[in-house]
Design goal:
By secondary structure, the protein is an alpha/beta fold. The protein is built from ten helices and nine strands.
């Protein structure tokens, strides 16, 4: 990490970089937007361990108590039913997919791991469980063990070490990026502060591939309560603007099986993805491909 703050900086995690003062981003085939999908495979503990922290916005509507059978089973619906609708849709559209998998999902849902691995989806480590997120209250040793444990447990099941990381519910601390680089990760999806990849540390070993919460179904449909029938128009409006901006951009959609895999929502995801594929100069990719393209073009 930098030892001192730069002028105008409020932290030492990364440097401020306005888009009008950086080299233009170029994508393969002259594309204007690289479009990626993040499929979330998450196991949610019925009784989280003492001291663990979860996003308070996802508490059950009947209060905060344990065990939360209703909330737990609602999420499990995604693993039993919803995910198969999503996989069928991605197959039909022949889309590359980045799959964010937490350690417990990897260990407890072997059929789903085989389903996404057989499709050659790109794995991203996604913490330990949906009820254990990184916070600044962790000690450095606790956070390091958390990251390494998530990496190794996913690697044992998948058969190879993941290169990408996405914290549960965007959970980070001031140390997270340094610890991710130390653990061998080459890119992170934790930072929604840009529309282009950028080097996230001074050593240029970790790339941030921004993934905005605006296009995550849990954030947009569940928390912000945007009507689902508006979703395809939101995606097409954004892409139509991004393709005419100065310099290429990236655009990621986050999908949870228990949300978009529901029978009354899947049609709107289909419409949104079809709109993305119809938009001129939009290139479907995985998050890792985008990171690699950036690395190859910005390796000096």
């Amino acid at each position: 990490m930098p030892s001192g703050r730069k002028v105008g900086m409020d932290h030492d995690i990364y440097l401020y970089s306005p888009i009008d003062r950086r080299p233009q981003l170029h994508l393969p085939h002259g594309a204007r937007v690289a479009f990626f999908i993040v499929l979330h495979l998450e196991y949610r503990e019925l009784a989280p361990p003492e001291g663990s922290y979860r996003d308070p916005r996802f508490r059950g509507e009947f209060g905060d108590f344990s065990p939360e059978y209703r909330t737990w089973t609602y999420r499990e619906y995604g693993d039993r039913i919803g995910v198969f609708r999503l996989l069928s849709l991605f197959d039909a559209l022949d889309l590359p997919v980045t799959v964010a998998i937490n350690a417990m999902a990897a260990e407890r849902r072997p059929n789903l791991i085989e389903a996404v691995r057989s499709r050659r989806y790109e794995p991203v480590a996604h913490g330990l469980s949906a009820t254990q997120m990184i916070t600044s209250e962790m000690s450095e040793d606790e956070e390091r063990r958390y990251i390494v444990d998530a990496r190794d447990r996913l690697a044992r099941v998948w058969g190879s070490v993941p290169h990408g990381w996405l914290g549960q519910d965007y959970g980070v601390s001031p140390r997270t990026s340094r610890l991710l680089a130390d653990a061998g990760f080459s890119y992170t999806l934790d930072w929604p502060n840009d529309e282009q990849p950028y080097w996230h540390n001074p050593e240029r070993s970790l790339i941030a591939v921004p993934s905005q919460p605006d296009w995550d179904d849990a954030q947009t449909l569940l928390l912000r309560r945007v009507p689902v029938h508006h979703y395809p128009r939101l995606v097409s409006d954004a892409l139509e603007r991004l393709v005419v901006e100065n310099g290429a951009r990236i655009f990621g959609i986050g999908v949870h099986p228990w949300i978009m895999g529901a029978p009354h929502r899947i049609r709107y995801l289909k419409e949104a993805l079809e709109a993305a594929l119809r938009t001129r100069d939009v290139l479907p990719a995985s998050a890792g491909q985008i990171a690699q393209w950036f690395r190859e073009g910005h390796n000096r």
